[in-house]
């Protein structure tokens, strides 16, 4: 039975979380969507949902169904994983899903920490930074679906829940796991339902994980999961495996990259790729049909698959995204790009691609 049961609000985040747990020595299996049958055996099960931008009621329903499946499988602790940039709106979905899980688990309290210092996401005095920029000055304020216009996570989460939100500040986190544990206990006893916990280094994340050893629910990005395998190991529930948990068989075949994010980081990566790799940038404004757009991409890739990876990108700067949304509508524009990329991925695999980065 799983030691840790995880609910992720998107597929790529679920993969990132699985990677973090495997690096910590846990075996992990990622399941796509709410399970309809028995779950596989692993130390950690990660259920990947597509709930980040779903209607609130649907996000809550699917997250609770995933939670029930994990509890039925024997999970000792539940982890609700969301993005390291806290992607959500004032309507949700982080707050409503967390509220539902707190109620289901009857725990009354959960920490919230999206930090991932290795990737430049840090939380200081409750404010989320991307690199040296506040979240709302990082480009995330222009996100096409979840524009983030406030870096103060106490306020952001507070607008999504009827529960009180507190802060475990940097000065406390610096003192280690015992101090963090005392601070969270005090916040819970004072009526807070959530605690935003500062973290600017990996050592902070490890201490936060240790402090949450006995929490029924943890919420955050994949970074805060770094400290969880050690908890199970100290309890004698997880064996020492060395690097064996991370072993994967080598894959041979063509390689391709599909990019759909419109973040500054992704746009910069695509710009760098142009200097080294074949890159196709999709134009849904010129071809607003998913099937036709996919056919164009697959025809382009056909003669370029070989030893060098190819890059196919639907990413675009904010002004182009806004223009497409104005023409098609926000949901229709997103669905068009998603369907095109899905069809392209399927077509690439049919053409011999065995290493696919999305």
User: Main sheet?
Assistant: 8 strands, parallel
> Roughly how many Å is the radius of gyration?
21 Å
Poorly predicted runs of 5 or more residues: none
Would you tell me the structural class of the helices and strands? alpha/beta
Strand order of the largest sheet: 2-3-1-4-11-5-10-9
CATH-assigned homologous superfamily of the largest domain: Putative sugar-binding, N-terminal domain
Number of helices: 12
CA distance, first residue to last residue: 30 Å
Number-wise, the strands total 15
- Second-tier CATH architecture of the largest domain: 3-Layer(aba) Sandwich
Large-scale geometry: globular
CATH class of the largest domain: Alpha Beta
The fraction of residues in strands falls at: 15-25%
Please indicate the count of domains.
Answer: 2
Provide the succession of SSEs.
EHEEHEHEEEEHEHHEHEHEHEHEHHE
Describe the structure.
The structure is a single chain. The chain is α/β, with parallel strands linked by helices. It has two domains: 243 residues, Rossmann fold; 104 residues, 3-Layer(aba) Sandwich (Molybdenum Cofactor Biosythetic Enzyme, Chain A). 38% of the residues lie in helices and 19% in strands. The chain is built from twelve helices and 15 strands. The strands form three sheets. It has an eight-stranded parallel sheet, sandwiched between helices. It has a four-stranded parallel sheet with strand order 13-14-12-15, sandwiched between helices. A three-stranded antiparallel sheet has the order 6-7-8, with no helix packed on it. The longest helix has 21 residues. The mean pLDDT is 94.
């Amino acid at each position: 039975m799983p030691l840790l049961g995880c609910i992720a609000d998107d597929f790529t985040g679920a993969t990132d979380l699985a990677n973090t747990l495997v690096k910590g020595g846990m075996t992990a299996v990622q399941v796509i969507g709410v399970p309809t049958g028995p779950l596989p055996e692993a130390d950690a099960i990660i259920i990947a949902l597509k709930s980040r931008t779903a209607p609130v009621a649907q996000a809550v329903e699917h997250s609770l169904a995933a939670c029930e499946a994990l509890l039925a499988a024997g999970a000792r602790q539940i982890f609700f994983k969301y993005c390291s940039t806290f992607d959500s709106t004032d309507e949700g979905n982080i707050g409503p899903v967390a509220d539902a899980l707190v109620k289901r688990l009857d725990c009354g309290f959960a920490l919230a920490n999206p930090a991932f210092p290795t990737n430049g996401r840090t939380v200081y005095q409750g404010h989320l930074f991307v690199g040296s920029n506040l979240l709302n000055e990082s480009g995330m304020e222009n996100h096409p679906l979840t524009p983030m216009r406030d870096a103060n996570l106490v306020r952001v989460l507070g607008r999504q829940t009827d529960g009180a939100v507190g802060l475990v500040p940097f000065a406390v986190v610096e003192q280690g796991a015992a101090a963090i544990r005392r601070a969270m206990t005090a916040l819970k006893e004072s009526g807070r339902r959530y605690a935003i916990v500062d973290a600017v280094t990996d050592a902070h994340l490890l201490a936060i994980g240790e402090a949450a050893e006995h929490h029924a629910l943890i919420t955050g990005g994949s970074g805060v999961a770094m400290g969880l395998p050690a908890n199970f190991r100290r309890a004698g529930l997880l064996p020492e495996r060395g690097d064996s948990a991370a072993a994967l068989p080598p894959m041979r075949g063509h390689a391709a990259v599909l990019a759909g994010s419109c973040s500054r980081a992704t746009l910069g990566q695509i710009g760098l790729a142009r200097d080294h790799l074949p890159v196709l940038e999709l134009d849904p404004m010129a071809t607003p049909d998913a099937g036709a757009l996919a056919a164009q991409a697959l025809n382009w890739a056909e003669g370029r698959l070989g030893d060098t990876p190819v890059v196919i990108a639907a990413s675009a700067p904010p002004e182009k995204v806004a223009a497409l949304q104005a023409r098609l509508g926000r949901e229709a524009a997103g669905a068009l790009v998603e369907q095109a990329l899905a069809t392209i991925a399927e077509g690439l695999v049919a053409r011999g691609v065995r290493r696919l980065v999305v």
